[in-house]
Amino acid sequence: MRLSRREAAITLALAALPCAGCAAAQKFGPGPAAGSSNAAASGGASASSQAASPSITSSASPRSVALPLAGSVVGIDPGHNGGNFTDPGFINQLIWNGREQETCDTAGTETAGGYTEALFNFHVASHLRDDLVAAGATVVMTRKTNNGVGPCVNHRAEIINAAHADVAIDIHADGGPTWGRGFTVLEPVADGPNDKVIRDSIGFGRTVRSALLKYTRMPQSDYYGHNGVVFRNDLAGLNLTTVPKVLIECGNMPNLTDAALLASPSFQREIAGAFTTAIISYLTGSQA
Length: 288
What we know:
With 288 residues, the protein is an alpha/beta fold. 36% of the residues lie in helices and 15% in strands. The protein is built from 10 helices and 9 strands. The protein has a 7-stranded mixed beta sheet with strand order 1-5-2-6-9-7-8, sandwiched between helices. A two-stranded antiparallel ribbon has the order 3-4. Strand 3 and strand 4 form a beta hairpin. The longest helix is centred in the last third of the chain and has 20 residues, at 265-284. The model is unreliable at 16-52 (pLDDT under 50).
C-alpha cells in the first residue's frame, strides 16, 4: 500500500524515535474526511459560549505512555471562526495585543470560489488534533466548531498559555496578491510577555518550515517575508504568548493554484501531517 504524503511524513518522524513510539505509527490512518468536521460556515453560537469553551483532547489509552508525545501538551489555534461575519459588533471591538490596540478578530479571507479561510483552518486543525492525540499528546484547541463567533485573539492566547502548552501553532491562510504563492511562517518579536519564548519559537518555526518544504506541495512564499519567514510585532497571538508559538499562513487564497490546494481535503491532511512531524521533531529532538 502506498503511503500518502501525510502518512509518510509522520511515519518518518516516528521512525527516528526509539521503538516505544512505534505504536503510534499504527494508529495513523487517512484521517477523518473533511466533511466529518463541522463544516458550517455560519451559525448562531454566541461569542461568550465560544470564548468559554476551548477544546481539550487527550489520549485515554494506557498505551499512550509508550507514544512519542505522551505527557506533552500542544496548543492549536484555528484562526477566525465561521460565524464571525454574523457579529461585527463583537468582532470589531478593540483589544490590547501587547503593544497596541487591534480588533478582536476578523472574518478571515476566502478563495475566489468562496471557500473560507475559517473552514480551512478548522479542517487542518482537526486533522492535526487527531494526529497529535494518536501520538499521545494532550491537545488544547481555542475553538471546537466552525459555526461560532470568536473568541478574540487575546483570549485565544490566554487559553493556550493557561494550559501551559509545550508548543503551539496558529493556523491561517493568507489573503495576498493574486499573483503570489506560498506559505509563510510568522515569528514573534520580543515585547515583554513573550520574551522567554522567542528563541524556542524561532527554533520551532525553523522546524515547521523544513517540514512544509519536505512533506507538502506548497512552496515558500514568493511575495511575503524572506525565505518563507517573517517577524511580526503586531499580532496578539504572538505578542502575548508565554509558550513557544508560530503562526502559519499555509498558502495564499486569492491565488488560483494555492486555492486549489487549500480547498483540497487531501492537501489539508497533508499539511496537518507536516505540522505533526514538525511538532514531534521539536518536542523529541528528532530529525524532521
